[in-house]
Structures are given as structure tokens and as C-alpha cells.
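Retro notes - structure team

What went well: the batch runner handled both jobs without manual restarts.
What didn't: labels got mixed up in the shared folder, which is why I'm recording both outputs here explicitly, each with its sequence directly above its C-alpha cells.

Job 1
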Amino acid sequence: MLYLGDENMGSTKYITSMGELSRKDNSLCFRKNGKNIYIPIENTKEIYCLNEISLNSKLLDFLGRNNIIVHFFNYYGGYSGSFYPKNQYNSGKLLVKQVEKYKNNRIDIAKAIVKGIGANIDEVLYHYYKHGKSEVRDCIDWIREELYELVDKAESEKELLAYEGEIWMKFYSMFQYFINEDFVLNKRVKRPPDNPINALISFGNTLLYTKTISAIYRTHLDQRISFLHEPSEGRFSLSLDISEVFKPIIVYKTIFDLVNNKRIKVAKHFEKSLNYCILNEEGRQIFIEAFENRIETTFLHTKLNRKISYRTAIKLDCYKLIKNILEDKEFIPFSLKNSY
């Protein structure tokens, strides 16, 4: 299936079936079982290949000239890699400064990210607390009364990563109080996911990670130089840093909405085996549409005094980081509560 989505999805196209992607005149053509589906090149910025796709260098040259990024996923919905057009946004000056910031002031940015994760989880849980789920108060109180002090006192990125892990574990332990009982989370399992809730989390996190890769690509930042997560081969670690604070808002709110409103069902929307559990094609389509609607949701940005989408908020966090690197302006990640 070629899933183009509705008008709100605009610049992102998803391919969820096996087939061949090629150039046809000034359009893209997806061919499956002898049938052609044409994709207009105008306004296309990203293509997500969620199944085995055949393509050639002629197509890649065409995509590159039109600044279209292609993200590839494996059978389990995990991220395999991306095709990047020749990067026209490179900045030698910023690269040097980004390396200097990593060497000299990494921990301050890392602390801001961990605090940002905590603040947005607090806000998501507080919604359920206000609606009668008093059990989540323990996690909210821990974030407000202990986490920020622990982060301030931390002396290494390793300590901060431990606190980040603790935040997520406490958050997961709250799911039992407000999520449909069919989606119980006993423990977080990633590669591959082993039950429906882990499948949703892994797929959602991967979509957000690749959205962040695309956002960073359109700035002058270097994807490889990160601050909370260790820079390493085989992944864009800065995308992990930037995406973390948006997970509670975009990924988890999407999951809670789909599960609690029974739009995603255990019996209908998953493939299960002895060692893994993944969304089936119908389940992926439902999740993708909800995810795209969430990331394109607009809100009033309190500093800009205009409406922006969460997709734009991700890019604005990239620019905040650039301001920190070049001008030493304090980096404060996006806050759901403050709307900036």
C-alpha cells in the first residue's frame, strides 16, 4: 500500500507495501503488482519506506536535486537508515563551535534536556491526575520535588542518563492507572518489541526520531555531535537528544488516544510471533495518521505570539540549540506547559 494520507500530512509520504519506486518524468512512480501510483514531487519533503522497496541511482539523483529525504525501516518497524540529499546547509563555523560546546559545556545542555523530559511527562500525567487518576501523583511529586535537584547536582552525563532512564521507568509504571488493560506494560523491550504496547512505543519513537533527523537536516547543526546521548557510529545521536522532550507530547499522547479510544486493538492490529510483536499494515496506517495529525497540531506559541505546529516546535528547538552554541543563550527545550 502507498499511503499518502490526508491533506494535513502534506509533505510526508508513506510506502507500506513491497514494490518499486522510480522517476517518471517529473513525478515519482510507485509500482506494485503491475499497477502504477504516481506521487507529485511538489511539496514532498520526506518519503518513509516501511517495506522492501526497489530503487535506482537515477531516482536518488532526482530526489537529491529536489531535496527529498528518504527514511528506510526494517521488518520490525525499526530504523535502518536515511538517504540524505547533498547537504546544502553545512556551516564550518557552527561545526567548530558545536564541537567546542561538546568539549567544554556539554553537561549544561544535557541537564536542560533531562529537565525538559521530566517537565513534559509531569504535564502529561497531570492531565490524568486532574481527571481522577490520583495514583499518578507519586510520579508527579517525584519529578517536582526530587528530579530537578538531582539533575542540578549531577556531575557527569552518565549520571544524567541514569536519571533519564529513571524518569521513563517511573512514567511507564503509571500506565496501569489510565491505559486500556489490554495494553499492559510489564517491561520496556525494544529490539524487537515483544507485546502490543512496546510495539506502539518503538514505532512511535522511531517515527519521531526520523522526523527530528529531517528537522536537523534543514539547519546547520551536525547530527553526529550530541550532548546527553553519547555520540556513536551508526546513529544520529543529536536527533535522540532533540526528540526526547517531544516523546511525551507526540508519541505517548498519540498512543494513549489510540488505545483508550479503542482505535487500535490488540486482536486486530498486530502481528505476533514467539519473539516479537509488531503493528500490521492496517495498524501502521492508523498509527501513522494519528501521529501525523498530532505532529501537525497547532498551538499558540507564547513567545512568538502566533500558532505553530509541533513539527515546527522541533525545528525551533534546533534553532535554540544553535543560539546556545553561537551566543551562549541558555538552552531551554520545548515546554508543553509554557507552550514554547
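Job 2
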Amino acid sequence: MTTTKQGRAPGRPRQFDAEQAIETAQRLFHARGYDAVSVADLTQAFGINPPSFYAAFGSKLGLYTRVLQRYSQTGAIPIDALLRDDQPVAASLIAVLQEAARRYVADPAAAGCLVLEGVHCQDADARVAAGEWHAAARAKIQQYIAPPSPTGRAAGD
């Protein structure tokens, strides 16, 4: 009779923290841009080899999509909180722009907005991934400025 072991995958157990790796990748992509960060840069920064990288993230794009998700939760401008119904549209839009300015000058290593940088990168799939986040933010702002109702809002409201 043969028994099979069940449990972990073959090979050594992971010795790196995937969440820490995503944070590190976010800093690298933010500082250099998607195109300028290679898998070799990422594996060196994480202290792992390429097979471990691919086992953990699937691809550079797979990691990037996880970075965008993290960025939306930790680093992106909180559009929903700033576009408030209890203040004029113009005041809310000013608050969004001021928050953007604060964030972009606070980290001199960052090259602006991680999402906007991704929208302009050379990799088509990464552009699409970043473009989805950009389109969602843009739609929120457009919805706030001109909701689909007969009354709508005026910029001075």
C-alpha cells in the first residue's frame, strides 16, 4: 500500500513575505516606473530566485496588479472621502487636487501617480491594468460632477 503526502508543495518553503514583497515592488514601480523595473530587479529586492518569483506572482504583470490593488488601499488619493455631498463641487475638486499635490511632493522617490505612470508605460497589458484603475477614478469624479439625474450639479454647488 502506498501513501501520499499531502500538504505543502514540493521544494523549500517560502522564506519571504509576499505582502512585504508587494510593498517593495510598489516602491520600485513608483520610483522607476513599470518599464524600468525588471524581474531581475524584483527578485534581487525580494531576495528570491526567479522560479520563486513566478511561483508567488505568476508574472511581473501579476505582481503589478497586486501592487495596484495595494496602492488603491494605501497610497491612492481617497477620492470617495474627498468628493463630499455636503460641500460645493468646486471645493471637493480643490480638495482632491490639494491632496494629490501633498502626496506627490511628500515622497521625492516617487515619480508621481503610480496609476498614471502605468497608463503611459510601454507594456500593453500593464497599461490596461492601470487604465482600469484610472477609468474607475475618472468615472467617480465625472459621476460626482454630473450625476445622471435631471437636476445634476453645477460646479459652484
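One thing worth noting from job 2: The chain has one domain: 18-145.
We'll revisit the folder naming next retro.
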